[in-house]
Amino acid sequence: MSPRISVIVIGYNIEQYISQCLESVLAQDYNNFELIFVDDGSRDNTLQAAQKFSGDSRVKIIHKENGGCVSARKAGVRGAQGEYICFVDGDDWLNPDMLSNLVSELDSHSERVDIAASRFFFQNSDGSFHEAGGYEKYTSCKGYEFFELMMSDKIFHSVFPKLYRREFVINAGYLDYADISMPEDLLTNCSFGLHKPFVVFSKTVNYYYRSNNEGVSRKGDERLLEMAKTLSHLEDYIKSQVNSQEYNDLMQYQYLKHLCMFLFPDNISIRIKIKLFESFRDKVKNFRNSKYCLELWSRTRRINKLLFTGYDKCPHLMYIFQPMIILLRKCVTALTLLKRFITR
After folding, report:
1. pTM score above 0.85
2. Could you tell me the residue range of the domain that residue 103 belongs to?
3. Concatenated DSSP letters for 32-58?
């Protein structure tokens, strides 16, 4: 008899975290599941640490050459037997009742559910956690609603913590999606959304997402440039599925949002920022025609608007101007804190 759920855990060079993750899966108070761990060509002892759990009959281990997280998840999907699949990153961990909470949500609906989602705990830079997800405002959605909520950032785009009906995932063509590296979850869920899933949202908070200081967005290296390729994949996929000006506006919003996400932080080099703007310039040149972009722009600080204009109009002068703007930003922050202190 096949398990109802296949929990697909992926890992690459996370030997210090993988045991906690696998233990949290095996400790679930819901038992009808299999655990598939996909080692994505780790060069440390991640695979050996995972193999210590192979004595449990629920555990299956797949070792493959390094190909990135999407490639690893696909390998898990191919080996899965469950009616539903659940993606887990191997440096995160689960509440012991996560699966039972999501299964309860599935069983509370007479209609067949394609995706069940819940909120999660997101780790802050100081190591503490806060609740995230954005699902508290919704109970369910159908048709293109899931796609629209994802694209407009009304709900978080992660593939966790969610149960996906395996047949839906395969029929939506997931195994043919590009093996990209970032932002891979946005591409996955928005593409799923174009296949009109019935999605239900649980109010429970079930998953602990560990912030990775070695991640691409933290390190700000050349791999950030892959964002343009991923978003281009998503844009092409949207156009292949549906023709809508509304969705074109949402796509332009995603280009602008991702550009701003990495244009303003101080930890990313000016050279990378110039390349990012060059990659995105044609995609955002008419952003003022999109209501979603204008809403984002209205929330953007004046000093960041100045940075944006600088990279657009005179990018190479930013080697001089950006350090001055960073200093100005720090002065403004210091003055704000001083004013608060004085007025207490």
Report:
1. yes
2. 5-209
3. SEEEEEEEES-SSSHHHHHHTTTTSTT
